[in-house]
Amino acid sequence: MIHTLPELAARLGRGQRLLGLDVGTKTVGMAVSDPNFVVASPIGTLKRTKFTQDARELSRTLRDYGIGGLVIGLPLNMDGSEGPRAESTRAFAKNLMERSDLLGWDAEIAFWDERLSTSAVERFMIGEADMTRKRRDEVVDKMAAAYILQGALDALAHIRRQEREQRERDEDDSDIGGESGGGDA
């Protein structure tokens, strides 16, 4: 099922994690969150073959890491529209939902705007990490997945902080409104 990010997080069981995916035509980069949804860590790259084989490999990752939901990077165009790459990513997610039997899990999915994620990761690896081209090619997909997932985790933390602050304001308002006028008559 496709959710908003807060809906997805609310559906997760205690201790479950999120798996971030950077879906490409040849590979799928993967990153996992910690159970508190604070940090994304790259865990690997899945070389794409047939969908059934990809789903089985993904199933192992879901089981091994206690995954409760997927955050899939959606490659939007710079103007926010969806092009062929976004359509392909949505088709991949749809296949996961339709073939939950292969996953052994009902796919709970949220999309996250991944515009320029790979470019940002490559710039970092060239400028800051000074990686060779060969090494960059080996890690770029899983690093992009971590970048995507970290963006989603940061947004989720911001949303939760706003919700908590709103609850506190509401409680303060009810405390003020609920006090008796008191005083001597």
UniProtKB/TrEMBL annotation:
Residues 159-185 are annotated as: Disordered. Residues 16-121 form the YqgF/RNase H-like domain. Its EC number is 3.1.-.-. It is found in: Cytoplasm. InterPro entries: RNaseH-like_sf, YqgF, YqgF/RNaseH-like_dom, YqgF/RNaseH-like_dom_sf. One of its GO terms (cellular component) is cytoplasm. It comes from Azospirillum brasilense. It is an enzyme of class 3 (hydrolase). It holds the Pfam family RuvX. GO terms for molecular function: hydrolase activity, acting on ester bonds; nuclease activity. Keywords: Cytoplasm, Hydrolase, Nuclease, Plasmid, Ribosome biogenesis. The keyword Nuclease applies. Residues 160-169 have a biased composition (Basic and acidic residues). GO terms for biological process: rRNA 5'-end processing. The gene is ruvX. Belongs to the YqgF HJR family. This is Putative pre-16S rRNA nuclease. Could be a nuclease involved in processing of the 5'-end of pre-16S rRNA.
